[in-house]
Amino acid sequence: MQLMTNKQGLNGTIRVPGDKSISHRSIMFGALAKGTTTVTNFLMGEDCLSTIGAFRALGITIDVSPDKIVVHGKGWDGLQKPTGILDVGNSGTTIRLMLGILAGRSFDTMIEGDASIAKRPMGRVMEPLREMGATFEAKEDNFAPVKVIGTNLRPVEYTLPVASAQVKSAIIFAALQAKGETTIIEKEKTRDHTEQMIRQFGGEVTVDDLVIRVSGNQQFQGQAVVVPGDISSAAFFIVAGLIVPNSKIRLENVGINPTRTGIIDVVKAMGGKIIVEKTSAAGDEPAGTITVETSELKGIEIGGDIIPRLIDELPVIALLASQATGKTTIKDAEELKVKETNRIDAVVTELSKMGVAIVGTEDGMIIEGQQTLHGATVKSYGDHRMGMTLQIAALLADSDVILENADAINVSYPNFFEDVASLY
Ligand code: S3P
User: Fold this and answer.
1) How many helices and strands, by DSSP H and E, does the chain display?
2) Class of residue 283 by CB neighbours under 10 A (exposed 0-12, middle 13-18, buried 19+)
3) Would you tell me how many other CB atoms lie within 10 Å of the CB of residue 353?
4) Which residue in 7, 48, 66, 131 is a FRET match for 16, CA 20 to 30 A apart?
5) For 1-11, how does the pLDDT look when each residue is reduced to its tens digit (9 = 90+)?
């Protein structure tokens, strides 16, 4: 499709859709709890619909209506052996967290996904779960389809070799079913929505900086979950508001859990005009209003323990850097290679086509600033965040930008193009 351009200014207010990570977990905890869970502002994107589909196949009734989702949980033992193969589509969060849930059930499950999922490493989840007694069969012992042979699990003490909330969460779900206390030691702090939701559903977890302790045999009760907007979706408008001349964009009800706000710190360090006002009541995941304005930006170095706090925003941060003065270096981000696509290669290739001086490194990218963006035919690689990054880049292009496979944005933001257009 032909992407939109705009150098005159983007102005207005957006409510980005619900947080993807929290939406997935609301269905999972709702299904594992006893009683009814209602979820409002649930993200109706393809990834989260895959999680709903997986739990329906496991025997859970889930009512989907435009204003809310209702999950009729039956407790851990309410999950039943599915008749077919569970299909997670493009969703890494669904497959990895489900491995932890299904490993401790009393039946076997086959789980698979699309071509991208079939290339993403599952060994990082299977290894700690095997230490807990789990049994799997997988292609090359690392890739989907995966057969999960359900069994009784034992607790473990495990130090995560990668900073991954998906791996951490899979171990937590397994630990909740094991006999005794599991200890997980994180390499760097990653998003903690699973830990938050254990507490919300009446369970217990102890977090002491990087050390997480969780006991087994925990039962949950259905809850009302209000999902805040996704800061990873807001990121596209944060960058658009900063780089398109004469812009001011207000983003309402954005989740600002501190494990997710690395992009705000980066924008401030680059000299961007950004204001964050906290709005949500205590007890919920924190939310707020973010306002950005066109800004003069300077290049910076991004690396270390901020990386997990902005990992999904790095493609659009690379674009932001191309409009700053001076060079920006992104390092310690080798995890980008195992996302929906290899995001180092994809960002470097596609932004280069548009005229940006950018090089890939082993663990990140180096981006020159003050770049003029040109028209080109670009690709999403079936990766939602690549598609949206390229639309924001196209806003400043001096001629037409054509995006192949634009549908990929439906994974996390079905109304993305309409929301961009609403700011004209
Ligand atoms: C997610 C964790 C992150 C993130 C992904 C969602 C989650 O992945 O990139 O989009 O919901 O737990 P990793 O755990 O692989 O870092």
Assistant:
1) 12, 22
2) exposed
3) 17
4) 7
5) 999 999 999 99
Longest dimension (CA), the chain: 62
Same fold flag, 11-18+229-421 and 20-214: yes
Q: Which atom of ligand 1 is nearest to the CA of 167?
A: 14
For residue 312, indicate whether it is catalytic.
Answer: yes
Q: Residue 35 Cα, ligand 1 centroid: separation in angstroms?
A: 28
Distance, in Å, from the CA atom of 53 to the CA atom of 49, rounded to the nearest integer, reads 6
Query: What is the per-residue DSSP string for 64-77?
Result: E-SS-EEEEEE-GG
User: What is the fold, at CATH topology level, of the domain defined by 11-18+229-421?
Assistant: UDP-n-acetylglucosamine1-carboxyvinyl-transferase; Chain (3.65.10)
Ligand 1: which atom is nearest the Cα of residue 191? 12
Q: What is the pLDDT of residues 114-149, one digit of tens each?
A: 999 999 999 999 999 999 999 999 999 999 999 999
List the beta bridge partners of residue 288: 254, 278
pLDDT score of 281 more than 80:
no
Do the beta carbons of residue 88 and residue 111 sit within 8 Å? yes
Q: Ligand 1 in contact with 165 (CB < 6 A)? A: yes
pLDDT at site 134: 98
Q: Give nearest CA residue, ligand 1 atom 16.
A: 164
Overall pTM > 0.85 = yes
| Nearest-atom index, ligand 1, CA of 166 | 14
Pocket test for ligand 1, best of 47, 93, 169, 260 (most atoms within 8 A of CB): 93
| Strand 157-159 to 206-208 pairing | unpaired
When the pLDDT of each residue in the chain is averaged and rounded to a whole number, the result is 97
End-to-end CA distance of the chain: 19
- Does 336 sit in the ligand 1 pocket, CB within 6 Å? no
Q: Annotated catalytic residue: which of 47, 312, 383, 419?
A: 312
Where in the chain are the domains? 11-18+229-421, 20-214
Task: With cut-offs at 50, 70 and 90, classify the pLDDT of residue 362.
Answer: very high
Is the CB of residue 311 below 6 angstroms from any atom belonging to ligand 1?
yes
